Amino acid sequence: MTAPVPEEASFFTAVGGEPTFRRLVDKFYEGVAQDPLLRPMYPEEDLGPAADRLTLFLMQYWGGPNTYSADRGHPRLRMRHAPFRVGPAERDAWLEHMRVAVDSLGLPAAQHTLLWEYLERAAYFMVNTMDPTEPAR
Ligand code: HEM
Questions:
Q1: pLDDT (tens digit, 9 = 90+) per residue, 106-122?
Q2: Does ligand 1 lie within 6 Å of residue 39's CB atom?
Q3: pTM for the predicted model, two decimal places
Q4: pLDDT reported for residue 9
Q5: In this structure, is residue 62 part of a structural domain?
Q6: Residue 114 in contact with residue 11, Cβ under 8 Å?
Q7: CA separation (Å) from 9 to 72, 82, 115?
Q8: Mean pLDDT of the region 63-90
Q9: Range of 61's domain?
Q10: Ligand 1, atom 9, residue with closest C-alpha
């Protein structure tokens, strides 16, 4: 006998699991790699490890494995962004690349909207300065 199908599969599973999140984040970082405002914010030469952290975080958030927290502990994302200057311009650049990445997945409309609206909210929440002249904290 086959195992019963859970009544409510996670969003993680519904959109295709890890490969979908890898595609999303890889596409996003293709944009970041070319971005004059965002690229210098990433301390490492290789964007691979940062891409991995974002992928694992998003997988966990949407009901996939908890590998992110096993490796990194509680997300505390606002705190982790505190060393970086995240103003409206950085937020908008981040969202621009994320929009291209989300669109590239070709998800059904309901899933597309759910994912995009979450990312948009999260990006607004991450803003930690409104002052364009204030240096990074
Ligand atoms: C609003 C504009 C944003 C900017 C400019 C930004 C920038 C950055 C930078 C420079 C890092 C450090 C790179 C690294 O070593 O991982 C980082 C880390 C990270 N960001 Fe963002 N971020 C933004 C929004 C977001 C949003 C909306 C999310 C989640 C939905 C997110 C999730 C993460 C995660 C999970 C990490 C790795 C944290 C860790 O474990 O150390 N970021 N971000």
A1: 999 999 999 999 999 99
A2: no
A3: 0.92
A4: 84
A5: yes
A6: yes
A7: 26, 34, 16
A8: 97
A9: 15-126
A10: 42
